[in-house]
Amino acid sequence: MEDAKRFNLVLLILSGTFAILVGLDLITDYSSGSSGTHLIFEGLLLGLSAGLFVWGISRLIKAKSEIKSLQINVEKLFQEKERWKTETHQLLEGLSVKIEGQFCKWKLTPAETEVGFLLLKGFSLKEIADFRSTKLKTVQQQSQAIYQKTGLASRSELAAFFLEDLLPSKSQT
User: Fold this and answer.
1) pTM attached to this predicted model
2) What does the pLDDT look like over 87-119, one tens digit per residue?
3) Cβ contacts of residue 45 below 8 Å, gap of 6+?
């Protein structure tokens, strides 16, 4: 990106300088009475270099406009992302409080509550044991205690218990 920018700038400077030099040479040749063919050839060179210079300037203006537009879009996306994060954070905090309240209704112990949250987050029993620095057997027993106290048969039923009302029903999709 930076190399292309530098190349375009050098090309613009060279074409502008070339146009000026050819124009000065054309004026000098005309005043010294050079042949018509020579003047026409230099006139064509002047037109070509001036055209290249104008084309370069127009591309530069277009590029700056596109950069400005992209900067505005990036800023809008950043603001939207921040708004989304704030709204989602508030919703997740509320959901977390509701889940913890349900865990209290089920009379889960603090350890079972922690395991329950980790199960809902999708961690494997081994990952939960590693995370909590406990034995796999302990986590297995705690997860079984959760299923017994809740009357649910599996992790998927536990997740479905909390997600069922969050997702639209088949008739709404």
Assistant:
1) 0.50
2) 888 777 888 888 999 999 999 999 999 999 999
3) 22
Alpha-carbon distances, residue 24 vs 14, 44, 121 (angstroms): 15, 14, 75
Residue 102 structure tokens:
């349900």
13-65 tens-digit pLDDT:
887 787 788 788 878 888 888 888 878 888 888 788 888 888 888 888 888 89
Query: In this structure, how many other beta carbons lie within 10 angstroms of the beta carbon of residue 8?
Result: 14
DSSP three-state, residue 99: helix
The structure tokens listed for 161 are: 């218990």
128 contacts: CB under 8 Å, gap ≥ 6: 115, 118, 119, 139
The H or E element spanning position 6 is helix 2-31
